Design the sequence.
């Protein structure tokens, strides 16, 4: 949707050159036996620059997790169309053999539930040294590297803890171990799917801070998937917002929070409870996100949108340049609409032109 | 901390010096509750806050009669709330209802939404007409009314839980709880698993129910931002002890305990520059495993950073 050089880097050095990961018009379809095909993700284009941290934000069922999993070809029953490029190397439609050479080694993934990634019968040390074999590090060197990795992730007395088993760690510690495991093979890209959702607030804050630190030190490109906008605020360079299978908004993080260009992003942000807000009712977005298979024509958000236009229920909005420098898929930003207003200014919160 | 006096007369629910220790063979005993006292005033939303392992689930399990405290007193309208083998007894089960975190686990997948919501009416004899499906026009009307109350389309009453979204299922669970006109609704992390936009809707729903039905809510949560939004009083629990209790405004403006301060500081803020500053500060002073800075621990405490799994009662 955007190229990775749309803005000067805000927090981390986003390296020029070819992006680490490119999704070009990717659609995902679930083929069910005897049933109709179900479109889960529609026409998603997204780039992840080298060293960039991109947050993919959306509500459950919007397709964000299945999209991340499709990058690594983790779901066999999902049909992928469009291009997925790791550097220059195509991944969409790649065979198991090639995907295996990528999974964990060049693109690593951490999930919400660390216990799902950790083998309960293997010591943490054994699990950490396993991926190191891919790059020929074994024996004493591997154990030393594993210890160093654990201690990078803030685990005290790491050398001794290598002999511990996953159940001996708390949830936050297990996620650190899972993160260490993901980093052990020295990947270029880390896909983190709701890595802190199962954790308590303080553990969550620390895991995100560690994720921030270890990926920064290693120059990793990170795709952080989350349903929680507040969580990604301090971490991401850029935020892509997904709704009902499509990316509707993709903007630098500061623009997203300062003046969200898409009505959905705006609605999501205002519904976030915060400690510095007056108590009482929250401005909720009415209705619910339609599930795959029941998505309406036109912009899928139109039934819930406070600013919908006449054509919103017919025409799928294309990605347009957003005022923040990214892109936004919303008819409010169509050229004609802007021409009517006589300027290329973003729509202010309460204009009265062209709305119902 | 002393039992927190209710601002308006007798509290609806009161816990006094509640203690509960779980003992298992071959493992050290876990003190889940250690002299917990707090009150839930009528017609208000009181939040019970704490991290996993703080004892908040044990506390409400004791209130619901699902767990027998070792010592202490639970009062309901000033009377001792006692649990027999079948829990609290039918009358109390009508008065005290609960909504859990995961509606999928608490709703029978083979029952329709309408049957789930109407079940309590049959059990407590609130809408006459016998247990047969669709036999009672009164009940059907009441179910439809409840569905509208929580923002569900009564037309969808014949659908099963799996045909609803997570937020809608939680609405079914709330409608089911409200059906029997409880006085006290206990929400155990009832919005934690929901998306922000749905969460906002459910929180607004709870505020509406408090205002329209004069419902008393005990809102068990770990998310302080959510608590700030809806609760008028807060009770902070750490390692089985109440470390702080009081009006939300006061506790949030002037937290009196380090643990409360630490919890408040960890709440993510949806503001990139402030969030980055916080992250930078954390990098400067990296903390190991969150050291539980609750009250003085009587048992052998884990050394900070030992990463010992906190047993979940």
Sequence:
């Amino acid at each position: 949707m955007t190229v990775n050089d749309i803005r000067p880097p805000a927090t981390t050095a986003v390296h020029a050159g070819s992006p680490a990961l490119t999704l070009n018009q990717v659609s995902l379809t679930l083929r069910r036996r005897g049933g109709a095909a179900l479109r889960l993700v529609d026409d998603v284009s997204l780039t992840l620059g080298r060293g960039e941290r991109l947050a993919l934000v959306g509500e459950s069922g919007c397709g964000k997790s299945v999209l991340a999993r499709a990058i690594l070809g983790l779901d066999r029953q999902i049909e992928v169309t469009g291009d997925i490029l790791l550097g220059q190397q195509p991944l969409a439609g790649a065979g198991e053999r090639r995907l295996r050479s990528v999974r964990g080694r060049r693109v690593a993934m951490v999930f919400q539930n660390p216990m799902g990634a950790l083998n309960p019968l293997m010591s943490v040390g054994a699990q950490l040294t396993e991926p190191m074999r891919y790059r020929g590090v074994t024996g004493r060197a591997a154990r030393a590297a594993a210890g160093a990795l654990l201690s990078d992730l803030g685990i005290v007395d790491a050398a001794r803890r290598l002999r511990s088993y996953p159940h001996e760690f708390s949830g936050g510690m297990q996620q650190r171990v899972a993160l260490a495991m993901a980093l052990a093979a020295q990947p270029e890209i880390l896909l983190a799917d709701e890595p802190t959702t199962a954790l308590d607030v303080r553990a969550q804050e620390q895991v995100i801070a560690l994720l921030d630190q270890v990926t920064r030190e290693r120059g990793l490109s990170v795709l952080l998937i989350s349903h929680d906008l507040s969580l990604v605020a301090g971490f991401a360079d850029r935020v892509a917002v997904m709704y009902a299978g499509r990316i509707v908004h993709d903007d630098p993080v500061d623009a997203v929070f300062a003046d969200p260009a898409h009505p959905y992003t705006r609605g999501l942000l205002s519904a976030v409870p915060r400690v510095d807000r007056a108590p009482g009712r929250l401005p909720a977005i009415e209705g619910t996100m339609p599930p795959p298979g029941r998505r309406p024509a036109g912009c899928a958000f139109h039934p819930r949108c406070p600013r919908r236009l006449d054509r919103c229920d017919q025409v799928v909005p294309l990605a347009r340049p957003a005022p923040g420098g990214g892109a936004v898929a919303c008819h409010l930003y169509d050229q004609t609409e802007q021409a009517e207003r006589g300027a290329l200014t973003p729509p202010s919160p309460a204009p009265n032109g062209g709305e119902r | 901390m002393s039992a927190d006096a209710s601002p308006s007369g007798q509290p609806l629910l009161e816990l006094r010096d509640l203690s509960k220790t779980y003992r298992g063979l071959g493992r050290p005993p876990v003190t889940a509750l250690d002299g917990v006292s707090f009150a839930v005033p009528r017609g208000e939303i009181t939040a019970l806050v704490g991290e996993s392992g703080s004892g908040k689930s044990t506390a409400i399990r004791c209130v619901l009669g699902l767990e027998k405290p070792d010592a202490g007193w639970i009062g309901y309208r000033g009377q001792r709330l006692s649990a027999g083998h079948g829990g609290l007894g039918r009358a109390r089960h009508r008065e005290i209802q609960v909504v859990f975190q995961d509606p999928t686990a608490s709703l029978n997948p083979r029952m329709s939404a309408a049957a789930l919501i109407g079940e309590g009416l049959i059990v407590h004899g609130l809408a006459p007409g016998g247990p047969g499906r669709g036999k009672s026009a009164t009940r059907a009307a009441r179910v439809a009314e409840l569905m509208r109350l929580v923002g569900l389309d009564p037309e969808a009453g014949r659908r099963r839980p799996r045909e609803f979204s997570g937020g809608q299922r939680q609405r079914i669970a709330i409608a089911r709880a409200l059906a029997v006109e409880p006085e006290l609704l206990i929400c155990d992390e009832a919005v934690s698993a929901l998306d922000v936009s749905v969460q906002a809707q459910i929180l607004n729903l709870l505020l509406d129910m408090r205002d329209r039905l004069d419902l008393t809510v005990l809102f068990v949560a770990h998310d302080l931002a959510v608590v700030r939004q809806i609760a008028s009083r807060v009770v902070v629990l750490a390692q089985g002890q109440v470390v702080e209790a009081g009006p939300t405004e006061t506790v949030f403006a002037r937290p009196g305990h380090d643990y409360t301060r630490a919890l408040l500081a960890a709440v993510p803020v949806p503001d990139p520059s402030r969030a980055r500053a916080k992250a930078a500060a954390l990098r400067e002073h990296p903390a190991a495993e969150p050291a539980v800075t609750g009250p003085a621990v009587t048992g052998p405490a884990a050394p900070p950073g030992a990463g010992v799994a906190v047993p979940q009662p």
About this structure: The domain at 1-94+229-356 of chain A is CATH 3.40.50.300 (Rossmann fold).
